[in-house]
């Protein structure tokens, strides 16, 4: 009986292996499917640990989530080369902005996430089962992208609480995933918060995934991601009139860095 199960198991694994070798689409679907299942299972386990250790929603839970997600890279053969971690060592709160390519970004996020740092996320994430639960427990700030006024209100509230509670806030200023190897124009919410709270902006850039991950061509293999944490950009003394200029400066610096890290020739472009 047990030998029968073993033989069936081996046959199924062999079949999956052959299908993955023959078809990039099957390979892609299986690997992404596995990533989602891993996120759901790991989130459930992490949520139990968070509730036991910290009792409810708190940024302290991010340490547990970070430790769990840092193991994911070994399942997918993703390697990180990180530079500039010292730039996170600013006194007090800060806004961290980074490029956003895929749901795989959660690995890159947790690889470098500093202590006392929460992310801004779309509210739909709350409804993704255990992943929603863990984002809630980790203190993620949810915004409704369909309502500018409500999103702006939440962001302005963040500007006040981040100073009072001494937390850093991680925002994806492109506002959505973009796996083209370039940046989308930046939305200004993150820069408004930085100016309102008079805290520095720390840009973080991840090299393009396109050499090992591309949903359009169904590519998903192992690969290396270069990460660079750039020096903080001060906002002391800036007013809302300076937000557009601050956004453009940050966009241009990050775009140059993205191209350099991805081995792509640079070209000038406006953020608008
Ligand atoms: C085991 C574990 C498994 C996994 C565990 C994972 C845990 C971690 C989870 C991490 C989650 C990460 C999720 C990532 C995302 O969800 S990304 C998508 C959501 N994020 C964003 O959208 C952020 C970026 N967007 C913005 O900043 C936008 O500006 C926004 C505030 C949302 C408003 O957008 P929109 O409606 O499109 O309006 P505009 O951007 O066009 O802005 C309109 C005008 O308003 C001005 N503005 C914007 N914000 C403010 C503000 N705070 N105060 C004042 N004014 C503001 C803006 O400048 C525009 O005016 P002008 O055109 O400049 O005149
Ligand atoms: C009971 C309900 C069950 C629902 C199951 C849902 C399955 C989802 C399972 C795993 C998904 C893993 C997601 C990890 C978190 C990723 C965060 C993220 O990258 O969000 C994308 C968001 O930034 C931008 O969204 P869009 O690009 O605008 O779109």
TrEMBL record:
Pfam families the UniProt entry points to: Acyltransferase (PF01553)
Residues spanning the membrane: 30-53, 125-143
All copies of domain Phospholipid/glycerol acyltransferase, residue ranges: 94-209
SMART domains: PlsC
Pathway the protein takes part in: Phospholipid metabolism; CDP-diacylglycerol biosynthesis; CDP-diacylglycerol from sn-glycerol 3-phosphate: step 2/3
GO BP terms, alphabetized: phosphatidic acid biosynthetic process
Recorded GO CC terms: endoplasmic reticulum; membrane
Record note on domains: The HXXXXD motif is essential for acyltransferase activity and may constitute the binding site for the phosphate moiety of the glycerol-3-phosphate.
Protein name: 1-acyl-sn-glycerol-3-phosphate acyltransferase
Source organism (scientific name): Malurus cyaneus samueli
